[in-house]
Write a structure and sequence with these properties.
There is one protein chain. The chain contains 6 helices and no strands. The protein is mainly alpha-helical. The protein has 2 domains: 50 residues, no CATH class; 34 residues. α2 crosses α3. It is flat and about 65 Å long.
Length: 109
């Protein structure tokens, strides 16, 4: 289990930009990790304005077209085909998992 002390040791070795990434992507990290990162940034005298205005290098920001395509609902045929394919796959994959159990009686004589 990760402790606060182990995080402090690890974060002391990180670059400032890595700590800013943690601060910019708070929902992606545990609360303890964010607190320790913020404390380390304060120790390094990083201004609060720099922390607040930092733009993440790794944050994915989808464009409008991607969002439109993401929320398009499938028509009936696509839903039906998806149901048939997934249920068929599940039937055949479960069939292979069911093996007959064979009991062998060992006698010594």
């Amino acid at each position: 289990m990760v402790t606060e002390e182990s995080l402090r040791e690890k974060y002391a070795q990180l670059e400032t930009v890595d700590l800013l990434e943690i601060a910019a992507n708070k929902p992606d990290y545990e609360e303890l990790a964010v607190i320790v990162a913020m404390d380390e940034l304060k120790k390094r005298n990083v201004p609060a304005a720099d922390i607040a205005n930092y733009k993440s290098l790794f944050k994915y920001d989808p464009d409008e077209k991607t969002l439109e395509n993401y929320f398009i609902d499938l028509n009936f045929f696509q839903k039906f085909l998806s149901y048939i394919l997934t249920s068929t796959f599940q039937i055949f994959s479960n069939h292979g998992l069911r093996r007959k159990r064979i009991c062998v009686k060992v006698t010594t004589g």
